[in-house]
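Deliverable D2.4 — example input (structure tokens):
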């Protein structure tokens, strides 16, 4: 459903405004959400005492919430400090799909595909995978079919590496070490240290190119779609045939247009937020 058509029903609006009674309010869920919300860029790692103080919960309650999040894969600990894992990003997947982020990105991707005559895509990070949320197909390069909802391993894709570049280094190492990293082609980088290097380089360069690592004959270039408050929310890429031109020529040909598309997409997202009077 397009976002402009999403109007809450009367019953939904009524429920959202009503102060819940005891039978409708789950205190433990509220406590767990407080714990999730207390982490930030400034305080990405906190002790149990710090979490309890920031949330206003007792140490015992904060401890139960943190260990529940660890058990479910949303948090981790080194024995002293607690941190969130990239799995928390999956909690936003329902919002993006339910509010048709695709509708925001699709026009920009259509323009990009028409300009370059190449297939273009957009994705978000969910755990150690990317999930395609928009795509414009011009010609088939990959053997597999890609569509909205397709999942691919983040470590071996250009969009995945762009999205991983916004993950703090401790979580990045943990995610890569815990992920399956198959050797798709002879060019696939699978070693964690080397992956961290190329992901960091991508953060510094503002783009990532993956050349025949996911599939022979496939080259892709990706850039981030950045939000002023939340950092990299989405990645977009262009896929090209590796046999038609040298890698440097591919990069030179698609990168300027790809960056302009990312800027357009970021502006569209922020304009939608302002129009809705909310932050996505």
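Example output (designed residues):
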């Amino acid at each position: 459903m397009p976002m402009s058509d999403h109007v809450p029903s009367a019953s939904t609006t009524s429920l959202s405004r009503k102060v819940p009674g005891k039978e409708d309010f789950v205190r433990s869920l509220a406590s767990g959400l407080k714990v999730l919300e207390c982490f930030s860029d400034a305080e990405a790692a906190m002790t149990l005492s710090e979490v309890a103080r920031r949330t206003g919960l007792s140490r015992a309650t904060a401890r139960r919430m943190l260990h529940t999040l660890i058990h479910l894969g949303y948090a981790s600990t080194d024995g002293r400090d607690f941190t969130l894992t990239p799995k928390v990003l999956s909690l936003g997947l329902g919002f993006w799909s339910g509010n048709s982020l695709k509708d925001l990105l699709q026009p920009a991707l259509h323009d990009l595909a028409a300009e370059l005559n190449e297939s273009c895509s957009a994705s978000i990070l969910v755990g150690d995978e990317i999930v395609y949320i928009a795509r414009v197909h011009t010609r088939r390069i990959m053997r597999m079919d890609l569509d909205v909802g397709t999942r691919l391993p983040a470590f071996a894709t250009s969009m995945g590496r762009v999205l991983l570049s916004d993950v703090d280094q401790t979580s990045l190492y943990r995610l890569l070490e815990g992920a399956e990293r198959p050797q798709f082609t002879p060019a696939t980088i699978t070693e964690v240290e080397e992956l961290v290097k190329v992901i960091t380089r991508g953060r510094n360069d503002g783009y990532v190119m993956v050349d025949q690592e996911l599939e022979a004959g496939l080259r892709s270039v990706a850039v981030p779609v950045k939000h002023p408050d939340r950092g990299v929310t989405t990645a977009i890429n262009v896929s090209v045939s590796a046999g038609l031109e040298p890698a440097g020529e591919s990069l030179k040909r698609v990168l300027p247009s790809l960056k302009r598309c990312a800027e357009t997409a970021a502006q569209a997202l922020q304009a939608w937020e302002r129009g809705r009077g909310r932050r996505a």
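The longest strand covers residues 231-241.
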